[in-house]
Amino acid sequence: QYLGIETIEIKGIHRDYVSVQYQNGDQISIPVEQIHLLSKYISSDGKAPKLNKLNDGHFKKAKQKVKNQVEDIADDLIKLYSERSQLKGFAFSADDDDQDAFDDAFPYVETDDQLRSIEEIKRDMQ
């Protein structure tokens, strides 16, 4: 839980720290220069986050579990894309009279960028 910013003196040097509270009142102070290490927790279901104890290992275990799940997903994606790369694709033929008639029936004037994009897509499909 965020407690605020406080100035702490260590060996005669005053620095600003962000104070965060954990379960059982344990606190940690992080130099404001390292505030990028903190991020706000936003629950997808609107529930308040469960506080961990500072050194009980629960957070480390949860973090490792998430890391393992992310690695599993990455492995699955690598396998999927590897399988997809082995499949033979379908090449569309060049525009015929029907396609030209369809293109001509478009009721708007395309911009140069739109025309270029259409041509690039058609090239990719052949």
Automatic annotation (TrEMBL):
<protein>
    <submittedName>
        <fullName>Transcription-repair coupling factor</fullName>
    </submittedName>
</protein>
<dbReference type="InterPro" id="IPR003711">
    <property type="entry name" value="CarD-like/TRCF_RID"/>
</dbReference>
<dbReference type="InterPro" id="IPR036101">
    <property type="entry name" value="CarD-like/TRCF_RID_sf"/>
</dbReference>
<feature type="domain" description="CarD-like/TRCF RNAP-interacting">
    <location>
        <begin position="1"/>
        <end position="82"/>
    </location>
</feature>
<dbReference type="Pfam" id="PF02559">
    <property type="entry name" value="CarD_TRCF_RID"/>
</dbReference>
<dbReference type="InterPro" id="IPR027417">
    <property type="entry name" value="P-loop_NTPase"/>
</dbReference>
